[in-house]
Adenine DNA glycosylase
Amino acid sequence: MLKIAPYFSNKLIAWYLQNKRELPWRNTANPYHIWLSEIMLQQTRVLQGLPYYLKFVEAYPKIEDLANAPEDEVLKLWQGLGYYSRARNLHATAKMVSEEMKGAFPNNYKDLLKLKGVGDYTASAIASISFNQPEAVVDGNVYRVLSRFFGISTPINTTAGQKEFKKLAQRLIDKDQPGTFNQAIMEFGARFCVPQNPDCGNCIFNDSCVAFQQRKVSQLPMKIKSKTVKIRFFNYLVFLSENERTILQQRNGKGIWHKLYEFPLIETSEEINLSMLKKLPQFQDFSKKLNIENISLFNEKPVVHKLSHQHLNTRFWIVETSEASESTIPISEVKNYAVPVLIENFVSEFFENY
């Protein structure tokens, strides 16, 4: 391992310096910017995350600006990136750093881990890139590169696998330029040692990659089979009153989309028709409060919204009423609320010419 480490890191860094993408967070060691980019790029591709990073940096140039922003505003700006707990943790950490640490990020791995939403990967990235500490990052890209190069078949979604790969990455990291090494191995995994059909014939490591030599590239990294996908049936009631008002409710329970807004939701165990909808207790509760004049189905075919481990079969019921309760809002204001992308897509289509 001691002999392979310099060979591996030197070759990787040389490749990176010649092939790296020019990204705004690579031109700074500012921990606020590094932290922001790393949180956004968790479970998000660079091309998708980049516009959000630029919007956040423009809206909140300093961490104090982010800390002082209303949470609804932060969620609205985050809208479309998904995994909204990241945005809530982002806001909470901004407040903590701004108020309790006088705006200065912790300068070491151990203390960075104490920040909300910051795990091993993010703490390692900030510590190495911003503070030049030899803390190795391990993400999906790193798992892929290391498992193939060394021919490791330990499943990456097990505790044993995570410990093994972290220890290996820590041994390989270039202690003189840890930030560059970490970015190099992530970039290499994202752009060259890709999940499907990598160009192994032109790989800088094809003379020493175990997976390539043993024709196991497509088999690595190994994963234990994930959970069964849960199928759910969502029925949104889109109330429209004569004076152009509707109802939005905030999700406050545990589960997906915490603190985001949505139309009144009735979840069922199967797909339902209009007759079945009218018999549901939740719908009857609304019938008692509002004078419902007409109900129509916006989409006969359910919109299937796929999340990790669950698929939401969603239908939007347009419910016209002659009355508007105190809890309604003007239809023109719906676009100002932070909503899941599923709702945003419906709003864009249905209310575009309303």
Remarks:
- The two ends are 65 Å apart (CA to CA).
